[in-house]
Amino acid sequence: MSRLTKTAYILGIFCFLISCSFAIFYGYKIFTHDVPKTKKTIEEARYHFVLVPEELDNEYWRLVEKGAKAAAKHYGVVLEYVGPKQANIDEHLKTIEMSAAAKVDGVITQGLSNKQFTPLINRVVSSYGIPVITIDTDAANSHRIAYIGTDNYHAGYLAGKALIADTKGKANVAIITGSFYANHMIQRVKGFKDAVKKAKGIHIVAIEESQISRIRAAEKAYQILQEHPEVNAFYGTSALDGISIAKVVELKKREHDIYIIGFDVLPETIANLQKGTINATVVQQPYEMGYGSVKMMVELMEKKHIPSIVHTETQVIRKKDLSDLHQNRMEAGKKNAIPN
């Protein structure tokens, strides 16, 4: 081996080791960014849990986080909130795997798809011996210990019944769903379809996917109105869909002849309800889900019995219902997260 070749070889190994060091360091930083930094705090904590959301900075998931952290503080446990910055199943799965490898005491996550999430949840429970509680979206056929969250089929059914009532049973409907493959979105569409299938005046004209993206939801809404000008009602199955549909409807100056029912009560959703661009929305209880999931995990650690399914409250609200919303949600989140 020539001197030049040997030098290049050594430099190559050196660069490789540097790259590995950075990867390990930043992987560690990403995974531990939300953990209390002092050793004393971690040692004083009773347990160490991780909550893996679908999308880290999504406003809906921030409400789940808020409830979970309130419960963590109350019960004296460490809670990490880590996951993909934007919805990405591969990153989501990787974060769950990393959590298990880090030997946390419990994992709280969604069961987005049976094909991908069920085997991983089973492995975390069986191979690592770490309990998993699903939240917001269930993986009912997995080894998860419990589920807390919306009955998504029922939520979709409520949306369908609300649309029938508000449109007097006559509407050409377009559906924009967050995902064609996520369990909770599938159930929300199925429930809606079952609710409206016997209403002779309700016709589902188009179904499109937003991939939990404001931009894509707006693009799909615009495309639908271009291709199907007869559409006079929209159903959005994720928190961002209804907001994006409303923007396009306003752009088209059709807010007075298009009915919109969405999901959740983000600040923009409330603003659109107040001005009448969104007519109704399905309200979930994200704070309650977060608080209840941590409470359930603590009780599980203490060898207490917990129910296998806890369905949080779901209802449809309209503009007239906004005045009582904030108080009711906070009371539900703090006091009724899970039955005693």
Folded structure, characterized:
The structure is a single chain. The chain is of the alpha/beta class and 340 residues long. It folds into 2 domains: 34-150 and 286-312 and 328-335, Response regulator (Rossmann fold, 3-Layer(aba) Sandwich); 152-283, Response regulator (Rossmann fold), CATH 3.40.50.2300. It is 50% helix and 16% strand. It is built from 12 helices and 12 strands. It has a 6-stranded parallel β-sheet, sandwiched between helices. A 6-stranded mixed β-sheet has the order 7-6-8-9-10-12, with helices on both faces. Helix 6 (152-166) runs parallel beside helix 7. This is Sugar ABC transporter substrate-binding protein. Pfam families: Peripla_BP_4.
